[in-house]
Amino acid sequence: MSAAEAWAYFMGLCAAVAAVAKAAEILKKASGRGRINERLDALASAAAGDRARIKLLEEQNADRQKAQGVILRALIGIMEQLRTGGNAQALDASVQEINEFLTER
């Protein structure tokens, strides 16, 4: 084998190593994109669960606000009864409203 042939063989070997290294780099980047996509899918799934939980909390908050309104109207009726001594209709309306609220549940 002459020096030129040895040099050509060496350069061919270097080119093959460079090609394999470049292919490995490309595969590494591609697998990284796959992991990013998997992570994005996981985050999207978590966000959907968070939105469902927020909706449930909003519904529960609306129920609490309604209950608080019923309680406050009943307290106003009781205070009016105590203050005036003769507002039985307001107390009857409060009792009816409380009964309706409790039977809805």
Q: Any overview of this molecule?
A:
Helix content is 94%, strand content 0%. The mean pLDDT is 82. The protein has 2 helices and no strands. The chain has one domain (3-104). It is rod-shaped, with a radius of gyration of 38 Å. Helix 1 runs antiparallel to helix 2 (88-104). The protein is mainly alpha-helical.
Quick structural overview:
With 105 residues, the protein is mostly helical. The chain has one domain (3-104). It has helices spanning 3-84, 88-104.
- What would you call the shape? rod-shaped
| Proportion in β-strands | under 5%
Number of helices in the DSSP assignment: 2
**Main beta sheet:** none
Order of helices and strands: HH
Structural class: mainly alpha
Number of strands: 0
**What is the share of helical residues?**
over 70%
Radius of gyration, whole Å: 38 Å
Low-confidence stretches: none
Number of domains: 1
End-to-end separation: 95 Å
Q: What is the averaged pLDDT score?
A: 82
Which structural traits does this protein have?
rod-shaped; 94% helix; single chain; 105 residues
Question: What's the topology here?
Answer:
Blueprint: H1 3-84, H2 88-104
Helix pairs in contact: 1-2
